[in-house]
Design brief:
It is built from 7 helices and 7 strands, in the order ββααβαβαβααβαβ. It has 239 residues and is α/β, with parallel strands linked by helices. The chain has a 7-stranded mixed β-sheet with strand order 1-2-3-4-5-6-7, with helices on one face. Helix 4 links the parallel strand 4 and strand 5.
């Protein structure tokens, strides 16, 4: 049986005004991730989605169909959406509902991004730049080495130069990053792009890195209060 990305949806936010600039968007949260960032808030979604309950496809489609006049598009986030099999088919299904799509990604699967771009399936890619390449092992829980980060993000930056309207870049100022680190990461971006700096909110879990900054990031997982398998609260943070 072909894998379906619909079976990897573990959260759905009906209306968000901050996940897609200028858009009233719904947000789909896909499980699984290729990183283990110590500052991650959606850790259950990213690392333990096999223990969570799938959000019903029928409810998402019914909601989007009923509110096509008010919902401008759908944001797909995670976890890391590009690791999910059947992602392109999920986006095609959303297009049948006349929903443009924004995709949040850490940029470590440029092959997936390239294919989605080639097929004209995604209107906007929001790419998380974690920090300087040399700090990627620390920032990603040892999952991503500096050369890997440089190679993959380099491919993403090349696509952005060719399709500047389809990409934006952001960085969360986690405690491990100095201002110098942020400026180094900013220097990687192609000419003409800006790096959006997002404030860091400490995760509500033991052993996570913390600091005193507050703020809400796009990509926060929203759970149904009547839905089992979602122990996190709505004021969480993706990174």
């Amino acid at each position: 049986m072909t894998a379906s990305a619909w079976d990897a949806i573990f959260g759905f936010e009906k209306v968000s005004l901050c996940d897609w600039p200028g858009m009233n968007a719904s947000v789909i949260f896909l499980g699984g991730c290729n990183m283990r960032c110590p500052t991650c808030h959606n850790y259950n979604l990213a690392w333990h989605s096999h223990e969570m309950t799938v959000y019903p496809r029928t409810e998402i489609e019914a909601y989007l169909k009923a509110r096509q006049r008010w919902i401008d598009g759908v944001v797909i986030t995670g976890g890391e959406a590009t690791t999910v099999a059947g992602l392109a088919d999920l986006i095609r299904d959303l297009h049948t509902l006349n929903m443009p799509v924004k995709l949040d990604t850490n940029g470590m699967r440029p092959d997936v991004v390239q294919e989605l771009l080639r097929l004209n399936l995604v209107d906007l890619f929001a790419v998380d730049v974690k920090g300087p390449y040399r700090k990627y092992p620390q920032l990603t829980g040892g999952t991503t080495q500096p050369d890997e980060a440089e190679r993959n993000l380099g491919a993403i930056f090349a696509m952005a130069e060719m399709h500047p309207q389809s990409f934006l870049f952001r960085l969360t100022h986690v405690p491990a990053l100095s201002d110098t680190d942020v400026e180094e990461a900013r220097s990687y971006l192609p000419q003409g792009f800006t790096l959006k700096i997002q404030s860091y909110v400490p995760p509500r879990r033991p052993h996570a890195e913390t600091d005193t900054e507050t703020g809400r990031l796009s990509g926060d997982l929203v759970h149904r209060t009547d839905f089992t398998g979602h122990p996190e609260g709505p004021e969480s943070q993706r990174h």
